[in-house]
Structure formats: C-alpha cells, structure tokens
Amino acid sequence: MMSQTEHNYDKYNKIRFDIQDRSAIMEDILETIPYEYVGKKTEVTIPTSEFTSVCPWSGLPDFADIRIIFVPNEKLIEMKSLKFYLTSYRNVGIYQEHATNKILEDLVRVADPLYMRVEATWNARGGLGTEVVVEYRKEGYEG
C-alpha cells in the first residue's frame, strides 16, 4: 500500500525572487571601435549561449542563446562592453520578446550598422520554447 503524501502548494504562491527593473540594464557601458573597412560588406556574427534574464512574474531565470548578426557601417561593437551589457540583464524582469527587441535597439543606437539581426532562442519552459528574431536595416541599404 502506497502512503499518501500531503502537498501544500499554497507555500509556492508567495515566493518571489528579487527582480530588477530595466534601469539595471547597462546601456551606457556599450562601446564601439572604428571599422577600418568602411564600404566593404562584411557580415559579423556574435553568438553567446550565456544570456539570462528573469521572468517578470516569478523571478525564475530565462536562458537564451543569442546571435547578433550585423553589417558594420563605420563602427564595430567592442566585445568586452557587449559582455558586460548582456550580463546586466541577469536579474532584470523582462519578457523574452521585449529583451530581444531592446538588445537590437540599444546596439543599433550605439553601432549605427547598415544591417543588424538579433536571434534569440529561449529555453523551453513548461514544454514551450520561444524563438524571437528582430531586424534593422538602415534606410537605403540593400544587402
């Protein structure tokens, strides 16, 4: 005969982890370096499997593989600053779609690329994964 185990699921209802708002995202840390091959179409891809933010409701972590693909105009993204920028999302409560769009907006603002695409593949939660793709194309650029 199996023993019955009592479960008190109510204890989970009030659990929340500390969640930071968007002001914790270090936009100002992003830096660029001059691109020496202006006019030469070069596609740069920056992948990372270390991106995390948190669910704005529960504070539970969201993990994503991020790919930043861009064609530089006059600037390249400085990698150390990008690493710090992406890491600053670690405790920010933000929806996956919003995080992906914000990354694109901030990088476009700083680097002024001819073209940029951010692809985010978010780990499954409850059996559902999310893939978010956002793009920017500078007016007049046909690449």
UniProtKB/TrEMBL annotation:
User: Which keywords, in A-to-Z order, does the entry hold?
Assistant: Cytoplasm, NADP, Oxidoreductase, Queuosine biosynthesis
Q: Which InterPro entries match?
A: GTP-CH-I_C/QueF (IPR043133), NADPH_dep_7-cyano-7-deazaG_red (IPR050084), QueF (IPR029500), QueF_type1 (IPR016856)
Cross-referenced Gene3D superfamilies, in alphabetical order?
3.30.1130.10
Q: What is its EC number?
A: 1.7.1.13
The record places the active site at 55 (thioimide intermediate), 62 (proton donor)
Residue numbers binding substrate: 96-97
* Pathway the protein contributes to: tRNA modification; tRNA-queuosine biosynthesis
Kindly state which reaction or reactions the protein catalyses: 7-aminomethyl-7-carbaguanine + 2 NADP(+) = 7-cyano-7-carbaguanine + 2 NADPH + 3 H(+)
Compartments it resides in:
Cytoplasm
* Cross-referenced Pfam families: QueF (PF14489)
Name the domain of life: Bacteria
For this record, the Gene Ontology CC terms, alphabetical, are: cytoplasm
Gene Ontology molecular function, alphabetical: preQ1 synthase activity
- Main localization is cytoplasm
Matching SUPFAM superfamilies, A to Z?
Answer: Tetrahydrobiopterin biosynthesis enzymes-like
In Gene Ontology terms, what is a biological process of this protein? tRNA queuosine(34) biosynthetic process
Return the HAMAP family for the record: QueF_type1 (MF_00818)
Biological role: Catalyzes the NADPH-dependent reduction of 7-cyano-7-deazaguanine (preQ0) to 7-aminomethyl-7-deazaguanine (preQ1).
In Swiss-Prot or TrEMBL terms, this protein is called: NADPH-dependent 7-cyano-7-deazaguanine reductase
